[in-house]
Amino acid sequence: MTISINEISSEVGIRIDNDIYAVLEYHHVKPGKGSAFVRVKIKNIKTGQILERTFRSSERIEDVPLEERRLQNLYQSGDYYHFLDNTTYEEVLVPKAVIGENDARFLQENLEVRGICHHNDILKIVLPTFIIAEIKHSDPGIKGDSTRSGTKPATIDTGATIPVPLFINEGDRIKIDTRTGTYVERAQK
After folding, report:
1. Burial class (CB within 10 angstroms; exposed 0-12, middle 13-18, buried 19+) of 144
2. How open is the CA angle 57-25-38, to the nearest 5 degrees?
3. Domain spanning 130-186 has what CATH number?
4. Are strands 80-85 and 67-77 parallel, antiparallel or unpaired?
5. For the domain with range 2-64, which CATH number is right: 3.50.50.60, 2.30.30.30, 3.40.50.300, 3.40.30.10?
6. Which 8-state DSSP code applies to residue 128?
7. Beta bridge partners of 185
8. What would the pLDDT profile of 121-152 be if each residue is shown by its tens digit?
């Protein structure tokens, strides 16, 4: 379905050049001379790339209905992840390519995520900003290492390896920023 560019609003999905974008911001501009136009800031659903585009007010664009679902990660089998849709209680298969290599590193069992869907197709999995993970393997920390700066590699319960401060030991629970893959702080047990 096509809509006039004047009908656009925030968080609407649109298709441009066969890619689906979410509208982040839009501004209707009526200059003193010339015809009106709409300046739009959009985000590619799959890649996360943010673009700014300008449309004439007479243009029409394809409206793409987007839906957000709460999903719970169950397990991985081959190149697919199995999620439970928390609304319908149905199992949903999502290819690893949709999740992305970076986000898949932090996908814990039973972790609740958001799925961006279009006609029941999962386009993107959005992880929570922070997760709490347990250190499964790391070199032992030495008392007093908290005064020096520096990091060491540590493997967390998902199998990902991230840099952590020298005082972190195996069995410690830490808070991780999933956007950057960095250590934030030690978590309470």
Report:
1. exposed
2. 15
3. 2.40.50.140
4. antiparallel
5. 2.30.30.30
6. -
7. 175
8. 888 888 999 999 999 998 876 665 555 677 88
Question: Is residue 116 within 8 Å of residue 133, measured between CB atoms?
Answer: no
Q: What is the pLDDT of residues 101-125, one digit of tens each?
A: 888 889 988 999 998 888 888 888 8
Is the separation of the CB atoms in 45 and 22 below 8 Å?
yes
Please choose, from the candidates 74, 80, 77, 149, the residue with its C-alpha nearest in 3D space to the C-alpha of residue 108. Answer: 74
Contact in structure between 186 and 172 (CB atoms under 8 Å) = yes
Question: Which residue is listed with tokens 């997760």?
Answer: 131
> Three-state secondary structure along 175-187?
EEECCCCEEEEEC
In the block, tokens 């029409």 appear at: 60
User: What gap in Å lies between CA 157 and CA 106, rounded to an integer?
Assistant: 9
DSSP readout, 80-91?
EEEEEETTT--E
Q: Read off the pLDDT band of 70 (50, 70, 90).
A: very high
What is the pLDDT averaged over residues 43-69? 86
How far apart (Å, rounded) are the C-alpha atoms in residues 28 and 49? 22
